[in-house]
Structure formats: C-alpha cells, structure tokens
C-alpha cells in the first residue's frame, strides 16, 4: 500500500466501520441458524461464538527492531514487536526533555541559549545568549529535532530543579512509570560509539508521546506541520522544517517525532486520532533512516484498517 492508498483508506474509514458492523450482525444471525438446532428441546446446549473481525496486523512486516501500536484511550496494545526491549532513542529523547520541562516550568518561561550548546552536532539553529519562551523553543526543537534547543531546555530545567540533567530526566521518566527509559543528555545525541544519549522501549515511548500530547497539545500539534516559526525575545525570527516527510499522509495526526543516530538507527513516534477523541500511538525503534517512515506508515495503515473493521472506537 502506498501513501495515496493510505489517504483513500482514511477517507473510507467511516464507511468501513458501518459496513463492518453490518457484517458482524449478519454473521451473528447466520451463526444462530447454523449452530442452534431446531426441533425438540435438547437437554444440553452448545453456544458457539465466532469472531468476524480480521486481524489487520497479520501481514504487517516492519524492518524496525521494535514497534508498537498503543491505544491511548483503552491502554491496550494493538500490535507489538519487541515492545519492551530497551533500545537507543536518538532524538526521541527530546520528547522526554520537553515533557520534563513543561512539568516544572510555565510555557512562558524564558530559556537562554547557553554557549556550550551552540557547538553540538547538527541539526542546530541558535546563537549564544538568545532567549526564547519555553513554548516557542519546544515547538522549534521538536519539529526540526534541534539539538541545541533540546540541550538548552534540559539545562534550564535542571537548573530550576537544582539537579543534574540525568537526575531531572530520570525523575520525569519515573513520574510516567517508564521503567525501560533513561537519558544521559537532553538531546539524545550519542555520547560515544558505545553510549547513546537516551534509552527506552517502544511501549515507554508510546506512553510518553501520549502524555506529551495531553500535557501540551499545541506544542505537539506544531510537529505535524511542514514548518514551525517563532521569534526570539530579541526579535530574531526563525522558521524550521519538519524532519518527518510523511506528516501529510496521516489523518488526524497529533504528534510526530523522528530520531536517528549511528547507535539508534532510525526511530519514529507518532500519535494520531483514529476517531473522534481516540488517540493512537505508533512507535518504531531501530529501523533504518528511510524505513522508519515506511514502517510507521505500514502500522498507521493497518490501524486505520483495524478500526474500519471494528465499529467501536
């Protein structure tokens, strides 16, 4: 299934729900004729319940080492592949950084860009001593996966808590009961050829992505647009591009975050609305730089098919 087919699938989701329910009722009625005997009353009876709902994920194959489709409303796992394996997170660590900051600081808090973050690996965008509100810096940082922005947010939050960045991030992970997640730095950049900037499981990241959408929906929604713009308190305007090329193919998208380093491979976290107020998190870890998007797309497609064949959302 290609991207255009996903868009068609999204448009027909409502129709599929209605017809799926009709088929379900019809099958149930047919089941009565097949399994309930006529004639004299029997001394014993056997009730047969047959499922008519197809498993939309049966044919899904992803390159990623781990993946999950997690229903944030029912807290049920719809699809899982090594979903509890602890793997490098790369820039998905930035979700934890922003969540931790917003749990402690007001969105209007002024964040100063410290000198030490302006030499981090790309992508980066800012100059020493520039000042942004936390809300604006978070939108730019998550949309374009900016390492200097994430490091500045982590530095400011740790200073507010009077703790180290590791302690601050660990506290945020513990608050969400992310048992497989810990971060060494706020950006997710590899610390060395053997140590990633952050680790976690697909299940943990699904919970984290959902929590960030609930905590800061406007910041999360910025990651679903092609660009994000903001102006520093000194008057410098910035416009950055989204690192996710498939945002326009996913209906009801509420959050998108990419990640890639040598240690992590390609990672992707998505949250989208499968119905009115029914958010679903899709996470893939340990894919390739390109296949993280086809993996994520395949899981979104299967999820739309799943809900198209099930009338209840």
Describe this structure as you would to a colleague.
There is one protein chain. The chain has 313 residues and is an alpha+beta fold. The protein has a domain of 215 residues: DD-peptidase/beta-lactamase superfamily (Beta-lactamase), CATH 3.40.710.10. 38% of the residues lie in helices and 20% in strands. It has a 5-stranded antiparallel sheet with strand order 2-1-12-11-10, with helices on both faces. The longest helix is centred in the first third of the chain and has 23 residues. The radius of gyration is 22 Å and the shape is globular. About 15% of the residues have low confidence.
Task: Summarize it.
The protein is an alpha+beta fold and 313 residues long.
Quick tags:
alpha+beta; Beta-lactamase; 3-stranded antiparallel beta sheet; 12 strands
Topology:
Blueprint: H1 3-11, H2 13-35, E1 66-71, E2 76-81, E3 87-88, H3 93-104, E4 110-112, E5 131-133, H4 134-144, H5 147-161, H6 165-175, E6 182-183, E7 198-200, H7 202-215, H8 217-222, E8 227-231, E9 237-241, E10 253-261, E11 265-273, E12 279-287, H9 291-308
Antiparallel strand pairs: 1-2, 1-12, 3-7, 4-5, 6-7, 8-9, 10-11, 11-12
Helix pairs in contact: 1-9, 2-9, 3-4, 3-5, 3-6, 3-7, 4-5, 5-6
Beta-strand portion reads 15-25%
Shape: globular
Largest sheet: 5 strands, antiparallel
> CATH class of the domain at 3-35 and 43-92 and 177-308, anyone?
Alpha Beta
Distance between the termini: 24 Å
**Helical stretch tally:** 9
Mean pLDDT comes to 87
> What structural class do helix, strand and pairing data support?
alpha+beta
Q: Architecture of the domain at 3-35 and 43-92 and 177-308, CATH level 2?
A: 3-Layer(aba) Sandwich
